[in-house]
Each structure stands twice: as C-alpha cells, then as structure tokens.
Amino acid sequence: MAKIILRHLIETPVRYQEEFEARGLEDCRLDHALYALPGPSIVDLRKARAAQCPAADSAPAELPPQGGKSRFQILLDVVQFLPEDIIIQTFEGWLLVKAQHGTRMDEHGFISRSFTRQYKLPDGVETKDLSAILCHDGILVVELKDPAGTK
Amino acid sequence: MSGRTVPHAHPATTEYEFANPSRLGEQRFGEGLLPEEILTPTLYHGYYVRPRAAPAGEGSRAGASELRLSEGKFQAFLDVSHFTPDEVTVRTVDNLLEVSARHPQRLDRHGFVSREFCRTYVLPADVDPWRVRAALSHDGILNLEAPRGGRHLDTEVNEVYISLLPAPPDPEEEEEAARVEP
C-alpha cells in the first residue's frame, strides 16, 4: 500500500501517519483529534484504535497496566528556538535538554538565549526508549516510546 | 565578554522606535509544562494561536520587555524574575545597552534548570550611555532609564566634492624619456 502523506496547511506530525494508513485518508479527514497536539482534550489514540478494532487480541491486555502507571513524559516550551538549536542527551540516567540560540534581532533590539534542563530518567530507560517531538507551536515533548506502537 | 554583542548597530532613530511595539510579551523560554496546563490548540489562518499554556501566575511574564518612549527620557522595563540580583549584569558598550543574566543549575517544580540570556537595546542617538541608571524592583522587574538630550537630530548631509585626477603618464613615454636622459 502506498504511503499516504496528508499535506495540510502545515505538515502533520509524523506520529499520526500510521493512523492515516490504517484507517484510510477520508476517514481521518474528519477526525479532528488527529490534528490536535497533545493536550487535555485529546483522545488517547491507542485506546481509540483498540476500541475500533477489537480483533487486536493482545492490545487490551496490555493497556490497563500502562493506564495505571503514568508514563514518563516531559513537556517544554521552546518556542523561541529552532529545531537545530535543541540538543537532547541522556547521561547516566539523566535526561538533558539543552537549547541555545545566538544573537538575533527582534523588535526591541537583539537577544540571545540558552537553557539546560535536567530530568531524572526512570530506572532502566535508555536513549533508544525515548522519542521526541517538536510541535508546531513550539512545545517539545520527550516521552517513552509506546511499546505497543513499536510492535 | 569584553566586545560588543552586536558588531555594529546604528543609534536607534525615532522612526525605528515608533515602528516597533512598545511591549514584548511571550518571552519565556525553556519552561516546563504539565500536561494539564496545555490548552486545546486553536488554529487561526493555519497558525497555532499562542499561548497554548495557561499563563501560570508567577514567572509567566519572565523576559517580557517594555520600552517607554517619551520626550525627556529613555526607559525600558525588563522582567528578570528568574534571576537573583547578583546574576544580572547591565552594561553599555558604545550605544548598546546590554542586559545579560545567567543562573547555574537550580531546582524548580519541573526539575533542574539553568538559564542564560542577553538582551541588547540600541540606545537612541540623543542618550548618553554614561547616564544610564538601572534599578531592580522586588518582583524582578529591571528598570533602565537614561535622560534624553532632547536635541532633534537633523540628518546631516555633506555633498562630497569629486576632484578629477590627471591621467597617469604613459609608461612607454617614461621609458623613452629615461633612455634619452643619460
């Protein structure tokens, strides 16, 4: 099956591409939850998918423990930075997010900024278990990869 | 930290001052967010409307800058509430007014964070950099002010006279003349 790439006015986050493929383009066009960024009102895609295709046998068994345990997820407001200004590293069980931009002009003159944030990773989490998304509105999401999604 | 942050900048002209908004909001950076703080995204002509995050009381105005334009003085307000007074430095380099601040790793409600920024204002031409005064209020607003000379700068125009240079002497003729002489 050819990969469906849906071009909106802005590019759609990659995390939903598989959804288009699985459900068909026309079906997705009216599902506004797909275009929403992570937020309180967003429908959990995994749950939605599990409800739609109950044939997937192993998925419901795995969901409850995950739902009870909060997944590792960090949200950061990095709207002032370009994607290439941001470095995400892991070091001995710590997650480091560094962002730095050089002097640039704005309405009041010139500005340069940088920051470093450190988070303690849950035990046994490595770089390969993490995924990062920079949303269109400048919110960086670093989270544990979905074990169901990688299957 | 000895040189200018900006290689060269002309003094701010009146046109420049008035062409720009006097307040700059939404200057926060590197703020941690909690999932419940994020509002549902709204699209406006294909652009996401900010702020996505509900303004979270303390620290939500950090970095905001305001320029007050008046006849008698140059005044700028800058929110440096993330930094303690000894972490902020203000200096002028020629006609640049530089505010830089950095703080080392520190614990906040999301984890450890260190921040650094440097904001440079370009002083108007009639402000004497030596007379800039800075005051930091208890809520972390840095107030920078300097009296203005009040003189209106006329554009100085100097028509440069173009002098005509004589044509260079022909090298062949010179060589002949050199041969003839001895």
UniProtKB/TrEMBL annotation, chain A:
Localization annotation: Cytoplasm; Nucleus
Keywords: Cytoplasm
Organism: Oryctolagus cuniculus
PANTHER family: HEAT SHOCK PROTEIN BETA-3 (PTHR47097:SF1)
Gene that encodes the chain: HSPB3
Protein name per its UniProtKB record: Heat shock protein family B (small) member 3
InterPro entries on file: A-crystallin/Hsp20_dom, Alpha-crystallin/sHSP_animal, HSP20-like_chaperone, HSPB3
Pfam families attached to this UniProt entry: HSP20
GO terms for cellular component: cytoplasm; nuclear speck
Stated family: Belongs to the small heat shock protein (HSP20) family.
Domain named SHSP: residues: 54-151
From TrEMBL, chain B:
GO terms of biological process kind: negative regulation of apoptotic process; protein refolding; response to heat; somatic muscle development
Domain SHSP, chain residue ranges per copy: 55-163
Keywords carried by this UniProt record: Cytoplasm, Nucleus, Stress response
Molecular function GO terms recorded: structural constituent of eye lens; unfolded protein binding
Claim: Nucleus is one of the keywords in the record: yes
PROSITE patterns (alphabetical): SHSP (PS01031)
Matches recorded under InterPro entries: A-crystallin/Hsp20_dom, Alpha-crystallin/sHSP_animal, Alpha-crystallin_N, HSP20-like_chaperone
Cell compartments where the protein resides: Cytoplasm; Nucleus
Gene Ontology cellular-component terms listed: cytoplasm; nucleus
Domain of life: Eukaryota
Gene3D superfamilies, per the entry: 2.60.40.790
Classification via PANTHER family: HEAT SHOCK PROTEIN BETA-2, HEAT SHOCK PROTEIN HSP-12.2-RELATED
Job description of the protein: May regulate the kinase DMPK.
Protein family membership: Belongs to the small heat shock protein (HSP20) family.
UniProt subunit comment: Interacts with DMPK; may enhance its kinase activity.
Protein name listed in UniProt: Heat shock protein beta-2
Organism: Oryctolagus cuniculus
Taxonomic lineage: Eukaryota, Metazoa, Chordata, Craniata, Vertebrata
